[in-house]
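Form 7-S
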Amino acid sequence: MTPLMVAAVRGGGGLDSGEDIDSTDDSAAQIISELVAQGAELNATMDKTGETSLHLAARYARADAAKRLLDAGAEANSQDNTGRTPLHAAVAADAMGVFQILLRNRATNLNARMHDGTTPLILAARLAIEGMVEDLITADADINAADNSGKTALHWAAAVNNVDAVNILLTHGANRDAQDDKDETPLFLAAREGSFEACRALLDNFANRDITDHMDRLPRDVASERLHHDIVRLLDEHVPRSPQMVTSAIPTSTIMSPTHAHLITHPTIIASAKQQGKQKKRQKLVTGANTNLQPPTGATMGTAGTIGGSVNSNSTLVGSSANGVASVLGQNPTSPKNDVTANSIRRKTTAKKPTVPSSANG
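Output:
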């Protein structure tokens, strides 16, 4: 371990302990600056672990030391013997101060992979580190990145029953039915591991319970094998929330927000928007028809013959009122729809009654 590594490990608490990151009382941070000025190797690694000084600052939650090292030009994405970067180390240590510093550093690779393919987001979902999952997604980490076994962050969150991460990932558009190398979905893993709350969250978001794994087993089958009877009942009986509940629970401002662009293409959102559009168009047409088809002032309803072929030529419309017309058409006279029909007929008929020959009066 080099003197710079020792200084990184013994660095003051900085952001992680609530201290001022620029405190002049922090002798360890000052030592780091002095060692760097004297030419200390920033990216030297430990023989056993392959960790750099920045790895150690992250592992021991030394936010001030991490900032000094980055300011001096330390490699933000150096990997240890397992492939972990300083960001992986910060997530694993729940070192929020170092995590935020690395997140704001433009050189940091948010999708760096360990040797087993684990990304920082997958690690945060697996370890249930509060707040880090959403911060990584907001910083544009790949939400559907998979490790070497094909498991995404949602797979791992479901497996360990990290329901908060499950909901966050689904809200931001994670693939709810992604399959790993064994064709297992997040719902399948949740059912196998007994993650009841994660199962319910996935079902609420319309996860497909009929996708089988490479052994042709359903989530229900594996839950039954593991004696997770509560999950078996859930899979048998659970009814997802209706589309109305889904869309009403999501504000329009959220759907149109750039950070939630995936909601614009969500099938439920699209279907709801189309239905609302049809209803508005229908309402507009009906309102316009009732307004435009009012009879002229002083006009009266006369007796009509057949109407444009819509009624059989042998039929005769009896009566001079709209009710008579509607009764022949087999419709409800009081229906608003028939008001439009009657008004249309009213225009086509003459306002004057036909003249009766005098001989007929005799």
